[in-house]
């Protein structure tokens, strides 16, 4: 019997996370350069996450280019007495379409919990933002064989309110903490293994069709030098890029390679 195969294809995505880098002038200059380099890229969805103070100005530069604006964090309430926080409504107001949630730097440096991730995710989706939920293990957890359990627990708690209606704008980023900013990229086997378990969990909570539609991406020391190998990994729907996204030509090279992998023979 011939197995039923799905011709379904998820659009690859490249997200540049600029973290706490660049002044307003530097960020707008980088955005201008990116829109010149990538304004015609259509096969790959491109997202840039500048620091809060540059959101609106970068958004203005990116207007009409197809490159989407993202925030690096969000609060779960619409408004209130939360000094230093920014709400999903305010992010939308500033031009954001996408938000990162539960980045490992938020979790490890700022004590963000899975419960906070759960609340942020629901709030972001409810306001119409796309949400990139980041999960991943520490080096110690990988060494002691806990990777699957850690990622599963992060998904279980973070996506606890999952319902199909809301979750059509969800993306998952697998970012092993030991690979972030270290130059030590995960291997294809490591990425495939964790991506498979992420998709299994998504299928369990949302059903196989929704799980099939959700993009699962990788982050951690992605560079123009290793993107071709990463792009060849089956079931990898894109990348979340930190350091290498700070140089517009490097980030553009990453996008172009993803695009080429998508148009190449399969
Ligand atoms: P990196 O960061 O590409 O500098 O490793 C990735 C991330 O933190 O999202």
Question: What brief labels describe this structure?
Answer:
alpha/beta; TIM Barrel; binds 2-phosphoglycolic acid; globular; eight-stranded parallel β-barrel; 8 strands; disordered N terminus; 266 residues
**Which structural category fits the helices and strands?**
alpha/beta
Number of strands: 8
User: Which architecture name does CATH use?
Assistant: Alpha-Beta Barrel
| CATH classification class | Alpha Beta
> Could you report the average pLDDT, rounded to the nearest whole number?
93
Radius of gyration over C-alpha positions, nearest whole angstrom: 17 Å
CATH topology: TIM Barrel
Tally of individual helices: 11
Oligomer: single chain
Low-pLDDT ranges = 1-7
Could you tell me how far the N terminus lies from the C terminus, measured between alpha carbons in angstroms? 23 Å
SSE string, helix = H, strand = E?
Answer: EHEHEHEHHEHHEHHEHEH
The CATH superfamily is known as Aldolase class I
Portion of residues within helices = 40-55%
Beta content: 5-15%
- C-alpha geometry: globular
Record the strand order, biggest sheet: 1-2-3-4-5-6-7-8
Can you summarize the main beta sheet? 8 strands, parallel, barrel
> Bound compounds, please?
2-phosphoglycolic acid
What does this structure look like?
By secondary structure, this protein is α/β, with parallel strands linked by helices. It has one domain (7-21, 45-261): TIM Barrel (Alpha-Beta Barrel), CATH 3.20.20.70. Helix content is 42%, strand content 14%. It has helices spanning 24-38, 55-62, 88-93, 104-110, 114-126, 139-143, 147-158, 188-206, 208-213, 227-231, 248-263; strands spanning 13-17, 45-49, 68-71, 98-101, 130-135, 170-174, 215-219, 238-241. The protein has an eight-stranded parallel beta barrel, surrounded by five helices. Helix 7 (147-158) runs parallel beside helix 8. The two termini are 23 Å apart. The structure holds 2-phosphoglycolic acid (PGA). 2-phosphoglycolic acid (PGA) is lined by residues 17, 175, 180-181, 219-222, 240-244.
């Amino acid at each position: 019997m011939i197995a039923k195969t799905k011709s379904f294809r998820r659009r690859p995505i490249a997200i540049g996370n600029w973290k706490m880098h660049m002044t307003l002038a530097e960020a707008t200059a980088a955005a201008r350069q990116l829109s010149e380099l990538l304004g015609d890229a259509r096969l790959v969805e491109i997202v840039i996450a500048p620091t809060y103070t540059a959101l609106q100005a970068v958004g203005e530069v990116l207007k009409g280019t197809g490159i989407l604006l993202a925030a690096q964090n969000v609060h779960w309430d619409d408004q209130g007495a939360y000094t230093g926080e920014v709400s999903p409504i305010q992010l939308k107001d500033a031009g954001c379409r996408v938000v990162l949630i539960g980045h490992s730097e938020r979790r490890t440096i700022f004590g963000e919990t899975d419960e906070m991730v759960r609340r942020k995710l629901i709030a972001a989706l409810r306001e119409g933002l796309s949400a990139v939920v980041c999960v991943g293990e520490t080096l110690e957890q990988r060494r002691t064989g806990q990777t699957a359990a850690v990622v599963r627990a992060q998904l279980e708690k973070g996506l606890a309110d999952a319902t199909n209606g809301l979750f059509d704008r969800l993306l998952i980023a697998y970012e092993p903490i030991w690979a972030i900013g270290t130059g030590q990229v995960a291997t294809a086997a490591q990425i495939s293994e964790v991506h498979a378990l992420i998709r299994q969990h998504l299928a369990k909570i949302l059903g196989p069709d929704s799980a099939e539609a959700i993009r699962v991406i990788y982050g951690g020391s992605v560079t123009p030098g290793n993107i071709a190998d990463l792009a060849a990994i089956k079931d990898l729907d894109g990348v979340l890029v930190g350091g290498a996204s700070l140089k517009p030509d490097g980030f553009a090279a990453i996008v172009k390679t993803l695009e080429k992998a998508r148009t190449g023979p399969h």
